Each structure stands twice: as C-alpha cells, then as structure tokens.
Amino acid sequence: MIGNCFSQCLNGIAAPVDTSFGSAALTVMVTALPSNGTILLAGGVKPVTLGETLTVQQLTALKFRQTLNLYGQNSSFA
After folding, report:
1. What is the mean pLDDT of residues 57-62?
2. pLDDT in tens, 4-50
3. Which of 19, 31, 48, 60 is the most buried if burial means most Cβ atoms within 10 Å?
4. Which residues contact 45 (CB under 8 A, 6 or more apart)?
C-alpha cells in the first residue's frame, strides 16, 4: 500500500523468491499503476509503464512520486 508519501519513497517491496531459480533469473510484469502518483525506476527519472518487465533489482529499488497537492489517498501497485 502506498500512502501519503511527500518525497520519493516506496517501502516494503520484498524480492520475490523461487526455489527453482536464482533472483537474477526472475522478472515481474507491471499489471497496475497507482492513480495518485508515478512509480519511478531507482534513478527517480524514468516512469514505470503498464506491461513493463522489471528485474528483481529494479523492483526492490522503485520510487514513488505522489501527485502534487493530493492528500489523504492510498493506492496500490501490482
């Protein structure tokens, strides 16, 4: 859950684990994005897009930039 985050932050995304594959072989696909902000790659510049495939390293380093002047909303990212 992404809450009132005034600076870039995204906490609690754990690295996925699969006992059959190492983390370097795992990827995730973005299937939903929040409506109250933008998910960014670790550098804080490039927005993540629907359908984008992320490595475990990219996933665990994501940033969230809340829409300016938008308060009191929660959102989810899948």
Report:
1. 90
2. 444 445 556 778 888 898 888 889 999 999 888 899 998 889 999 99
3. 48
4. none
Q: Pick from 72, 71, 64, 68: which is nearest to 34 by CA? A: 64
| pTM: predicted TM-score of the whole model, two decimal places | 0.72
In sequence order, what are the residues at sequence separation of 6 or more whose Cβ sits closer than 8 angstroms to the Cβ of residue 19? Answer: none
SS3 per-residue string spanning the chain: CECCCCCCCCCCCCCCCECCECHHHCEEECCCCCCCEEEECCCCCCECCCCCEEEHHHHHCCEEEECCCCCCCCECCC
